[in-house]
Amino acid sequence: MTVRTRFAPSPTGFIHLGNIRSALYPWAFARAEKGVFILRIEDTDVERSSQEAVDVILEGMAWLGLTHDEGPFYQMQRMPRYKEVLEQMKAQGLVYPCYMSVAELDALREKQMAAKQKPRYDGTWRPEPGKTLPSVPPGVQPVLRFRNPVGGAVVWEDKVKGRIEISNDELDDLVIARPDGTPTYNFCVVVDDIDMDITHVIRGDDHVNNTPRQINIFRALGKEPPVYAHLPTVLQEVIDPDGTKRVEKMSKRHGAKPVTQYREEGFLADGVVNYLARLGWSHGDDEVFSREQFIEWFNLDHLGKSAAQFDDTKLRWVNAQHIKQTDDAKLVELLRAIRPGVVEGRDAEHLARISALVKDRCETLLVLADWIEKFYHPVTPDPAEVAKHVTDAVRPALGMLAKMLETCEWEKAAISECIKEVLRASGIKMPQLAMPVRVLVMGTSQTPSLDAVLSLCDRQVVLQRLNSAG
């Protein structure tokens, strides 16, 4: 059997990290099993769906490298197929027309709730042997309802939640086509999964309640359902206007960002994939791993059963580890995509050397871009930092260093010797000299090795900034 998985987002809002995790696991499972990963756009909610949201899905998946093998398939383009299957179900007596109005259905539910019963359709229009149906109201277009089995239970072994059993008596007869003939979500999903030969459905646990209904439709159509794995929700911390903190399901309404925004904020695709992989799956204690390791290790047996909480600090830490491990020239090219002005017209080898020096201090590419700019553009030190470090006691040493740097060979070892000579001649300690030099040259007192930093700066820029101390 060839494993065939799918990701089937609805383009009714911008896809965020909680959504994209439901693409990551079926993608990884298909890759791990040498299978097929399918992208399906469930766009039947015409009023809320948008092309812009579709574009974010496609762009976000492409950026993260979650490439699909088939699709994207759009449900709105498959309407003739759904109606064909509906006609087959009519002919087999698997569906029936229901003329109960919305007002009648609401009244029925209110009555049931008042009696402390579960609100559900009562089968008024379901044909049964010996049953007399009400008179068809004139001018009313019916919905089509699926004849759900009576008695027994729907049972499946969920790869995350274990054995789940739902009594058929808990399920009413599902509407599978609206009065205008448009098919509904649960029906379309089943037809799609059958036509696309889906073997494993890996999705959020907000779909658990849909699963028994879908399984019954599969079996009514003579098909066995796929293997299901329902993933726990991704949570996020929400801070109310009064400062109260609470944890909610990750959503756009609570500030979740479109996936593509992480690219603009300088996150690496491999860093985000690594972080998302750990939000509901684990491989021992491994925290940082490559995409190739993830695919090699991934299986459905180690999916977590508990909801995971998104942690921006942890994401940044994981991203920083990937930046450290990324080739310097590649980092420069990645920067070109989001901050072209930082790298265009500049020597690629010099940019790579700067990257090699500072990348251990960078949690995103934007931080790397800020560091690179310090080597090319004027810096504005914090006056308080200048006052703290550039004192009258150290100014003679700064002048001496500037004088020596005018004529030394411009490379790390020679610059290091100049610094050591100034320390010997002036009698001050390294921090007393290094701090003011860092503040004046780079605008910050925290930098990598001073001689390495200066060697990557333009000599005249260094001299100008040191001499500005007066």
TrEMBL record:
Annotated Glutamyl/glutaminyl-tRNA synthetase class Ib catalytic domain residues: 3-317
GO biological process: glutamyl-tRNA aminoacylation
InterPro entries: aa-tRNA-synth_I_cd-bd (IPR045462), aa-tRNA-synth_I_codon-bd_sub2 (IPR020751), aa-tRNA-synth_I_CS (IPR001412), aa_tRNA-synth_I_cd-bd_sf (IPR008925), Glu-tRNA-ligase_bac/mito (IPR004527), Glu/Gln-tRNA-synth (IPR000924), Glu/Gln-tRNA-synth_Ib_cat-dom (IPR020058), GluQ/Sye (IPR049940)
Protein name per UniProt: Glutamate--tRNA ligase
Keyword Aminoacyl-tRNA synthetase attributed: yes
One MF term in the entry's GO annotations: zinc ion binding
Bias (Basic and acidic residues): 118-129
Gene that encodes it: gltX
Catalytic activity: tRNA(Glu) + L-glutamate + ATP = L-glutamyl-tRNA(Glu) + AMP + diphosphate
Main subcellular location: cytoplasm
Pfam families, A to Z: Anticodon_2, tRNA-synt_1c
EC number per UniProt: 6.1.1.17
Organism: Caenimonas koreensis DSM 17982
Domain of life per record: Bacteria
Residues that coordinate or bind ATP: K252
Subcellular locations according to the entry: Cytoplasm
Subunit comment: Monomer.
Ranges where the Aminoacyl-tRNA synthetase class I anticodon-binding domain occurs: 331-469
Function: Catalyzes the attachment of glutamate to tRNA(Glu) in a two-step reaction: glutamate is first activated by ATP to form Glu-AMP and then transferred to the acceptor end of tRNA(Glu).
Enzyme class: ligase
Motif ('KMSKS' region) on chain: 249-253
